[in-house]
Amino acid sequence: MEENLSGLELSRAYFETFGMTMLRAQFPQLIPYLAAGLIGSGSEVLGYDDALSRDHDFEPGFCLFLPGEDLVDRQTAFRLERAYAKLPAEFRGYKRARLQPVGGARHGVFRLSEYLSEKIGSEDGTLSLSGWFSVPEQTLLELTEGEVYFDHFGALKAARAALAFFPEDVRRKKLAGQLLLAAQAGQYNYPRCIGHGEYAAAQLAVFEFVKAAVSAIFLLNRRYQPYYKWSFRALRALPELSIEAELFEYLLTTDNGEAVREEKARVMEGIAADLIDALTEKGLSKANCGDLEKHAYSVNDSIGDAQIRNLHILYAV
């Protein structure tokens, strides 16, 4: 067993060793219509897998995506599924799981239109306005990360391009909402909870501030935020405002006793100031103050689409 082998490396090696050989030998006529790669759920798709994460749902495998039945009929698709199922059950010391993980199969043969429809409610990756607000950010990340080995037909690449990131007005709506939540939790509610002697509630305010501020930073970087257990790892790799990760960790891992409560309040004000500086530099806010809430409303006012702008400021969070 190769302990340092990542899931992406394992998948590509398995595909190149067995998958492509199977396709060339049994389905050469299909290759121009197929896409192959590793996308979807699982830490390995994001490159976040390690020795600990290999205790479940870690196996050699890959995804094959088919176009519509007008190009690849059901009988041919079934034959391809059977051929995939007969690929070696063990590779480099790792075994293919016999049972599907929670949420269904992660590897195998899929109709691209059905796969996308199940994930995001769209057969080609084109989302309506309501779709952009309702599809979980982690799902969008899963569909746009990972690796595509080839896509001669181009449908998978087109879908990934369409889902690359939120449309600008959607991004601004989400950003405005997260900024408002951060302002309410950090600049307003934290000191009030401390003043009331509600130290547990104060820590909940800290959690809400960090949660909203982290989301805002991903939006400022135009990057999808992953599932919470991977958020800090991804945050530290962002090109802008990644330095805030250490401050967030301090806020989350300290109590609210007399020795630290004033310092925590100052740290949150400092993070708010950094967010405001980023908003100003990017031309996202015209407010001229240190009140993050006013900047949230200014970002909302900058939304071009009146329908989106007039939705409640917290609609997208």
Provide the spatial order of strands within the biggest beta sheet: 5-2-1-6
Name the helicity range.
40-55%
Number of helices: 14
Distance between the termini: 43 Å
Secondary-structure element series = HEHEHEEEHHHEHHHHHHHH
Uncertain runs: none
The class by helix and strand makeup works out as alpha+beta
Shape summary: elongated
Gyration radius (Cα, Å) is: 23 Å
Residue-averaged pLDDT: 94
* Main sheet summary: 4 strands, mixed
Tell me the number of strands: 6
Strand content: 5-15%
Summary, kept brief:
With 317 residues, this protein is an alpha+beta fold. 54% of the residues lie in helices and 7% in strands.
Task: Describe the structure in your own words.
With 317 residues, the chain is of the alpha+beta class. The protein has 2 domains: 156 residues, no CATH class; 142 residues. 54% of the residues lie in helices and 7% in strands. A hairpin with a 2-residue loop joins strand 3 and strand 4. Helix 8 runs antiparallel to helix 12, helix 8 packs antiparallel against helix 13 and helix 9 packs parallel to helix 12. The longest helix has 28 residues. The protein starts with 6 loop residues before the first helix and ends in an 8-residue tail after the last helix. The mean pLDDT is 94.
